[in-house]
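Predicting holo structure, magnesium ion bound.
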Amino acid sequence: MPEIITLLPDHVANQIAAGEVIQRPSSIVKELMENAIDAGATSIDLIIKDAGKTLVQVIDNGNGISHDELSLAFQRHATSKIKSAEDLFRLKTKGFRGEALASISAISHVQTVSRTVKDSTAKSIKIAGNKVESEEFKVAPLGTSFSVKNLFYNIPARRNFLKSDSVELRHIIEEFNRLAIAHPDLNFSFVSNAKEIFDLKKTNLRKRISTTFGIKVSNSLVPVQEDTPVAKISGFVINPSGSRKSRGQQFFFVNNRFIKSPFLNHSVNSAFEGLISFGYHPGYFIFLDVDPDKIDVNIHPTKTEIKFEDEQSIYAILRSTIKHSLGIFQVLPTLDFDRDSSMDTPYSYKEKKPSSPPLVSIDSSFNPFKESSGIYSLESNQKINQIEFESESIQNVIHDLNADLSPKQIKVFQLFNKYLITALSSGLMIINQNRAHQRVLYEQLLSTLSLQKTPSQNLLFPFKTSISPTELIYLKDNKTELEALGFEFHLDGSEVINFTAIPVLFKEKQLDQLFDKLFSSEIEFNGFSKGDAISKQLCKAMAIPNGKILNIEEQQELLASLFTCKEKTLSPFNRPILVNLDAIEIDKKIN
Ligand code: ADP
Ligand code: MG
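Done. Tokens:
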């Protein structure tokens, strides 16, 4: 290949750079809304069509852009927010790289109308693929309106990578919520496909959380407050009883910028240690105010990660502040900061009454050196929860994968709280309890879907639950499919929803957990029907988790149900359910 080095033309360089900043419609929402906030707007309106694939429009009442700077704003590295590299450590704005508008206009059709207070008319500019197509003067209110149409029109491969509208809409709502919570003192509205989703008036943080996440969340908020030279901490945590299986309610803001930080999240988790049961996550809306020269925001293309100069201290302060708040609000029984948390009783054991010792029946006639008895070879340090061997000959243990077996005939024990071990005539079978249960539920739901009349149970008293505007969208979008699966509910646009019937497969007391998980997962159709996709989500939400101790009847019941499934070896998400160790392999290993 001849070595000819050329500089890429600007529009190609911009398209490449756009890939980092603009991944999907929600990235445009983030960049445009952040610009509006930086411009000092007090009201910001977001309008989208087809989950932003057709249109993202952001209208603000901020400072505007003057006539002669309007086209300059679309050049790469054009920014009014910093002048030198040192300014990076004095940042008060969300933007500073001057690349969002250049990136957006490289991959879409943009129209901007803007007016500053010193101009009597507004200027409008149309740009596509970084080329100015037209400029004109107009009458328009003070502030700026950006319309971004036909995202990725010139990069079909990127357009094809976009997910379904409901997934993309979820990402947009996520970005919108982050900014709305970071700035409760601003008015925000959000209209999707001509329907209003949010109309948020300027308020305080608690009320903003309530209007975006629903009354249930706002009723369980515990305030957190601390002022130290390293950081000022404010905001709320959700008390332990409101913690969820999903991580959808975890928000850190550093100098009002939403960030993701596994490190700080760990600190919050450690403050909640012993208060939350296995598999649940604490919820929080925490604001950290840190001197801008003690952080580096410029370490990630989307600016959602931050490097702290004094990470260790922030970790420790955050942890003790949250513990303190949980103590004051009497969530913790006693306040003892020197307590060694490793001595805490795990949450799941707290309410447990002492039970009689586990029943292990021992076969006194068992002879390990007898030839037929070499089926179970278990290392002594393995945790076995239930071992129930009958004293009869070991051969009676053995059965085949057979749909006609009654649960009681199945000999099984649980290992590591997640595997069920059973012996077949051909060898040993190890079954993952979570995936097995997913498969069982999935086949039952699919048969429900194919029936004309759905087996659902009417509830004696309607199950009432409060939902957020986002959750309402989910229920509206998927009403037909949820009804086909046996749910009955009424939507009247209010915050409380009544379920009058649910599928027979589920218990009423599981509903809170079910919706928590359902609302926070993404539906991907992958060529299957929407009903199929929702069934898979339901199975994932409701299946027995790994880590749960099952009694012998539950183990037998689960295996008997798995054996009746059409597909016994793969979960609904195509993951293996079981492995077989056949007799020949076992013999080989032992010899
Ligand atoms: P950055 O935000 O990093 O400066 P952008 O490409 O997002 O870069 O914007 C470039 C410039 O355009 C900004 O620095 C700002 O001066 C101007 N600008 C963008 N959006 C707005 C807006 N909504 N109101 C006023 N000025 C804006
Ligand atoms: Mg910007």
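Residues 74 and 123 are 14 Å apart (CA to CA).
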